Amino acid sequence: MIFMKIPFSPPDISEAEIQEVAQALRSGWITTGPKTKELERQVAQFCRTSKAVCLNSATAGLELTLHQLGIGPGDEVITSAYTYTASASVVCHVGATLKLVDCQPDSFEMDYDALENAITEKTKAIIPVDIGGVVCDYDRIFQIVEKKKSLFTPSDNPIQQSLGRVAVVADSAHAFGAKWHGKMCGEIADFTVFSFHAVKNFTTAEGGAVVWKDIQGVDNEEIYRKYMLLSLHGQSKDALAKTQLGAWEYDIVIPGYKCNMTDIMAGIGLAQMKRYPALLNRRREIISRYDEVMKTLPVKVLQHYGEDFASSGHLYLVRLNGKDEQFRNQLIVNMAQMEVATNVHYKPLPMHTAYKVLGFDIKNYPNAYHMYQNEVTLPLHTLLTDEQVEYVLECFVKALKG
């Protein structure tokens, strides 16, 4: 294993997280229990939603949400061609038809005109992707689904019937803590899914969470109960409930999945919640310094902050103006030789074998390829010192000059 002087995205773990995990281990309760339930309460409060569900990954959150919406064979779900596979693979998992739309020119966000044109009478959900922690234009997305309501025919699913339109399920894996138009990420889309993976701003090692807006005519407790059933084999009682005196008996209501969060993971999250405002502030400081230097270079960067929005500051994406894939790849090698780890976000889905097999061709997504071919992601994490930030910039300027 090669250890870089500047790693790309190590987890920021303090003594507080270690103590929370030790407490869980000493308690004898290490699976889903009181710490998980408390983290769910705090996540909901942070996102200004009524409820939250913590799971073992954001991917599980996305897939269970599609099940929650009754989406399956015969239905269509639309997402961006410019994303990680989890945004799309879950559509395949539930047996629905995946539809990909291109990016806008010179933007990581999906082309909203193309999105509007892609909606048919079979479309049941859209999965927008909040890349780098920057929230999508949900005003435009909701205008589109309202405009297309006449095409929508709900199944017997109560949420579909209550919405009366295509559901908006945000892949906000990067965006926990982002703000947009005075709202927290989590209270904007119909359902919002976060990742708490080891490389994310907020981590539980693995893990994720789902939050949702109140839906008229649908009981939040019923939605929560369905997530619990789906995530624990369809079992009518979780392990915590079964500890009550004489409460051993349970039923298997549906043939569900196994993707619950453990109290060991939740313990990490509870400590992270206390530290998270300071972690977000540190990311903003680093981004401000990066931006200051990037203004002097022939590059274009993702804008993280504006008058009416604030990113979670998850990724620092840089476009190398006028450069191609070969130059970008060599820059990554040059940075590595100076012991700075970088990355690329993302290789568009139609360039991967699994999606080629499904019939997708990158030639039909020229904007996505254009964004990918000269994109490089710089280290952005809260373990970076000011001196390391300056070193990353120094190395980047050298590598950019070839």
Structure description:
The longest helix is centred in the C-terminal third of the chain and has 32 residues, at 263-294. The chain is an alpha/beta fold. α1 packs antiparallel against α9 and α3 (58-68) packs across α4. It has helices at residues 15-27, 34-47, 58-68, 86-93, 112-118, 138-147, 158-163, 220-231, 263-294, 325-337, 353-357, 366-373, 386-400; strands at 52-55, 76-80, 97-101, 123-127, 167-171, 179-180, 183-184, 191-195, 208-212, 299-301, 305-306, 309-310, 316-320, 375-378. The mean pLDDT is 96.
Task: Sum up the structure in keywords.
402 residues, alpha/beta, 7-stranded mixed β-sheet, 13% strand, globular
